[in-house]
Amino acid sequence: MLCSVGSLSKDPVAEFNPALANRIQMPPAISVRPIPTIVLTRISRNPGNWLTKSPDPMKPAKSAGDVMLTRMVTIPADMILADAARLLVKHRVGSAPVIDPGKHNPIGELSRQACTDALLEAVYEGLPTDRVSTYLLPWKFRITSNSSIVEMVGKFRDCSQRLLPVYKDDHFLGIVTRSALIRTLLGFLEHMPDHESRLLYLSALRERDEAPEL
Questions:
Q1: 90-128: b or e for each residue (b if 16 or more CB lie within 10 Å)?
Q2: Is residue 96 one of the residues assigned to a domain?
Q3: Cα separation of 168 and 70, whole Å?
Q4: Which residues span the domain enclosing 179?
């Protein structure tokens, strides 16, 4: 049987069987207390926190010196490529700096893609692989420890390098990888309070990079 909404406020037993209603005591009305609002605080496991040197959460890492790697796998230029490929796979590295054995300075990088192409050619031709110096990618761009995030993103976009070497007065300091840059940008998004502040911050970085040198 369907009943209207208004009939729900009446006693159904008293309405249909008054005699039975006198013998049955209905339970008292249950007072519904308002449920308090629960505020959930999300604990952010921010992947970019370790890149931030400032205690102020509004100031994430802004320069290459904040995100560069100083400990890395390096490959001598005179190493046989097959051995270098094993080294990259062992350490799970996508690309590594190639070091000049004589001057001990980086002269480029060797990537897994270059190793794959060289190994395929060696297998197809039935010949051993040559030294790493034959397959390395020379570095066209390099940055300083003061290079901004916007500058680093632009360098990666304009070249085929997987690594950006960081220098100070011709002294090699470390490298910036795309992964480290992505972690920094993700950390930046976590730190900024709203969309408008993020836009203002990126706009300020672009204006600084595009300003003429005095």
A1: eeebebbbbbeeeeeebbbbbbeebbeebeeeeeeeeee
A2: yes
A3: 13
A4: 49-207
Q: Provide the whole-model pTM.
A: 0.60
Q: How many CB atoms within 10 Å of residue 85?
A: 22
Rounded CA-CA distance 134/154 in Å is 28
d(C-alpha 188, C-alpha 134), whole Å: 39
Distance CA 208, CA 150 (A): 10
The parts of the chain modelled with pLDDT lower than 70 are 1-61, 192-199, 201-202, 208-214
**pLDDT one-digit tens code per residue, 17-55:** 555 445 545 545 444 444 333 333 232 333 333 333 333
Note whether 149 and 164 are within 8 A (CB): no
> Is 30 within the bounds of a domain?
no
Q: Hey, what's the torsion of the CAs at 113, 119, 123, 125, to 10 degrees?
A: 90
Please indicate, yes or no, if residue 4 is contained in any of the structural domains.
no
Strand, coil or helix: 38: coil
